[in-house]
Amino acid sequence: MVYYDLYIKWFNDKKQIGQARQTKVHEILGESEYECQALNYSMHSLPYPNTDSIPALKRLTVKVNFSQILNNTELLSQYDIVAARPSNDQDFHYCCMEAEIDIISLKLHDRLGMRIKLNLVQEAIKRGIMFELCYSQALRDINARRVFISNATNIIKATKGRNIIFSSSAKDLYDQRSPWDVINLGCVLGLAIDKAQNSIVKNPEDAISHGQARKVFKSAIQISDKSEFVKQEGWNILPSSL
User: tRNA processing among the record's keywords (predicted)?
Assistant: First the structure.
């Protein structure tokens, strides 16, 4: 059984980068109990560290300008996973109904700033989108923990326990909890034990597969569009001699 953590933090501030940060990233990726992890990238982040020796998925989390960024096929093709973090009703509606993404990541340790409408949640589930609950911020502050529990419980009720992913959003190894601790957290929040286990096993795997399918589908559309353009322009494509 493979355990997944699809949100390990990478920074966009040069002051935070340095050798110490590189070491922490490699520590998380190398010493974690999770066999498959994703290093999160934001639009203005610094380049990824070299993780060739420790396989890690590349993930993009979009927080602003959703329609503009999420329609940039060339940009999105660079990432294994594409997530969005909406902060208002309009963006949440777009992410659930239209956006070609794999994960809706919610900042649950703070006020959501939007209504979690059941019809939108169910439509997102039909489209294969996962709802991500990040827990590390809730570990640091009792008030954040209280808000996290309330928000997470509401999301689990809205999804009926389906398509839930738990991720750490860890900055270092101490932010990450063991797989069984996370499964227990899921049960405390109202998930049945099989669905709690799915949140770090099956559902993240499905999100990765969704990302692969999204990339193939988008590439196929691009090729189709180019072929149609060639036909309209009346160009003749010579057969390759190779």
Answer: yes
Q: Which of 227, 220, 228, 219 is nearest to 74 (CA)?
A: 219
CA distance 89 to 116: 8
User: The whole model's pTM is what?
Assistant: 0.84
User: Are the C-beta atoms of residues 111 and 91 closer than 8 Å to each other?
Assistant: no
Q: What is the pLDDT of residues 32-59, one digit of tens each?
A: 899 999 988 876 545 555 555 557 899 9
Cα–Cα distance, 125 to 128 (Å, whole number): 5
Structural tokens at position 237: 């494509």
- Nearest alpha-carbon partner for 191 in 214, 217, 239, 159: 159
